[in-house]
Amino acid sequence: MNLSIYDKLKTLSEKYASNLKQRIDVHSKEMRKDDRSHYLIYRVLDTTNEEGELIGLYQNKGCFLYKYDGSFLEEAAILCFEDKFEHAQRKIRIPNVQGNKPKTFEIDCLVEPEAYEINEIKWRDATTDGYHRTNCQ
After folding, report:
1. How many helical (H) and strand (E) elements, i.e. helices and strands, does the chain have?
2. What Rg value do the Cα atoms of the chain yield, rounded?
3. Backbone phi, psi, residue 107, to 5°
4. pTM (2 decimals)?
5. Cβ-based neighbour number of residue 38 at 10 Å
């Protein structure tokens, strides 16, 4: 059965939402086991332990959200190219004919003769390049 682009994107979004929730849940449980000696500095800076805990929780949620939304948009954009162009090729490597390093380049989506870098398409805050992922694991 051939799925419509709507169905493919819906399935993709459900997968990413589920994976994001699972990752946040696991990390939230890990955070509850963390050493909390740094909470002393919260009190020094007139921030309650509860506020500090919420800040840490939401900082980590935001970190994962940026990571997942960037990856989702990249995958969604490639699905759209594949839907629109029958011969679209995803994530291919081509040799570097201009020098020695790097040996190859990755093209997100090739629709000959055009090569598309998906980061050029995504919105700025949705990134997979680490812009907002500092310390996000």
Report:
1. 3, 3
2. 20
3. -110, 125
4. 0.74
5. 10
Q: How far is CA 16 from the centre of its chain?
A: 9
Distance CA 111, CA 88 (A): 5
What 3-state DSSP class applies to 64? helix
Q: State how far the Cα of 132 lies from the Cα of 129, in Å rounded to an integer.
A: 8
End-to-end CA distance of the chain: 37
User: Would you place residue 130 in the very low, low, confident or very high pLDDT band (cuts 50, 70, 90)?
Assistant: very low
For residue 93 the two structure tokens come to 């490597």
Summarize the confidence of residues 23-52 as an average pLDDT: 89
**Does residue 113 sit in helix, strand or coil?**
coil
Distance CA 18, CA 12 (A): 10
Tell me the percentage of the chain whose pLDDT exceeds 70.
Answer: 86
* The total number of residues written for the chain in this structure: 137
DSSP per position, 12-38: HHHHHHHHHHHHHHHHHHHHHTS--TT
Q: Are 52 and 42 in contact (CB under 8 A)?
A: yes
Longest dimension (CA), the chain: 62
